[in-house]
Amino acid sequence: MADTRDNTTTIGPGARxxxxxxxxxxxxxxxxxxxxxxxNGQVTIGNGANCNATVEAGTIIVDGSVQGDLIAKERLxxxxxxxxxxxxxxxxxxxxxGATFVGHVAVGPEAVAAAQSKRTSAPKAVEYKAATKRxxxxxxxNENESSKDWATRAADAA
Amino acid sequence: xxxxxxxxxxxYHCSAEIAVPAAARTASCPACYKGIVLDDLAVREGxxxxxxxxxxxxxxxxxxxxxxxxxxxxxxxxxxxxVLEAKVNSGGTVVVGAKARVKGDFSAPSxxxxxxxxxxxxxxRIGPA
Lengths: 158, 129
Description:
The complex is a heterodimer.
Chain A: E1 9-11, E2 16-23, E3 27-29, E4 32-39, E5 42-45, E6 50-62, E7 65-67, E8 70-78, E9 83-85, E10 88-90, E11 93-95, E12 100-107, H1 109-121, H2 125-136, H3 150-157
Parallel strand pairs in A: 1-3, 2-4, 3-5, 4-6, 5-6, 6-7, 6-8, 7-9, 8-10, 8-11, 9-12, 10-12
Chain B: E1 6-10, E2 17-21, E3 26-28, E4 35-37, E5 41-55, E6 59-74, E7 78-80, E8 83-90, E9 94-96, E10 101-103, E11 106-108, E12 111-113, E13 118-119, E14 123-126
């Protein structure tokens, strides 16, 4: 007998998720999410959802509010009720009249590859926190080369 | 005598809202005294380079056209079916057609991007000002 259950991951209205969400299949966000979402399938940010996260997926449909970067490997669709504050990279973009957004936009096959490489090469927040913690402890005089700020490194190089 | 029908436009120099005769093609802004174009502008074919494309009407970049300008000011919207490289400030909807290629910063109350359009980077501010 065929499995009739829907395999869509749903963050329901009123639910609050904080962290890194990695999925194989489709997802539907109707509640509040903070962190990042990665999926090979379709991610739908529903009307009324509050998404404060970076979303990377095959197809992204935005019908709610998103604060974070969107990377769609195949297609990004913003409906008339979408509100996006963040950078957009997509192979194909469809924007309906009435959508609002503020951010950098790159659309085309090369845009996704560039965004992905930029994302993987970006320094992680954890490393930054570690460096600031060490400085706060008073060991800044004995810090190694990598923890110096850019101005100090430039002066050393000169 | 019946007064000629009027329409409201926003001056792209000083942003003042003014009333002009409906049939007028150019006018002088009573607020800043600068000349303004009221006609729709269209780039139909070939490559066009200028420092500014400005009108209170609509700017259309046709399918075989390539427009490279520093600024595009369009009071009634922009429609791109060809290639546009510019900093765009539109008072109406910006429509990027399926075969269009755009590059630059865009500011508009609303945007329609058809599937297949290519946007080569740029900062977008879409929504009510």
